[in-house]
Specification:
It is a single chain. With 88 residues, the chain is an all-alpha fold. It contains four helices and no strands. The termini are far apart.
């Protein structure tokens, strides 16, 4: 069956069938994305070097918890907002 034939069939679906179809296609797309990421970040994957860099950074303590980074960003944002509200 061609894409054009599928489009024709889809055009004749009654509600809520198109929504169910879209939901199903999104699941298929999500599964494909997950598979691609698994392949890319596997030992022999094309992004394996990134994982090695991250692991080396963690081992060398060149990282910090995400919660600390978020807290710092929030504090900086709050400070920037309070600074912009003051009138010189």
């Amino acid at each position: 069956m061609t894409v054009e034939a599928l489009k024709e069939e889809i055009a004749h679906l009654s509600e809520p069938e198109p929504k169910h179809l879209v939901d199903w296609l999104e699941v298929i797309e999500d599964q494909a994305w997950d598979s691609e990421m698994t392949r890319d970040f596997s030992v022999d994957g094309r992004a394996a070097y990134l994982m090695a860099e991250v692991q080396a950074d963690v081992a060398a303590s060149r990282t910090r918890p995400l919660s600390e980074t978020i807290a710092e960003l929030k504090a900086n944002h709050k400070q920037a907002l309070s600074g912009s509200n003051s009138n010189p």
